[in-house]
Amino acid sequence: MFFLVWGSKWKHKRKENGLILYKQCPECNRSGEFFEVIPKKYFTLFWIPILPTEKKKSVFECPNCHERFYMQNQDHYSMKE
Question: What does pTM read for this prediction?
Fold first, then answer.
């Protein structure tokens, strides 16, 4: 008997030369550098990501709790280059 296991999984990769925000996280209330990450959805076979199926706008990830957020208008003032 052979079982075929497939599905999908989101992976978040840090964007090369991406923006860095220094701000306080609204979830964990700790300050830190938020790095720009790109979320991609992958087709998986036996829990191994095989090929990307969907890509979304880049988001910023908290270094402490790993919660992800879209950039707000007021965040433009706290960017590092």
Answer: 0.67
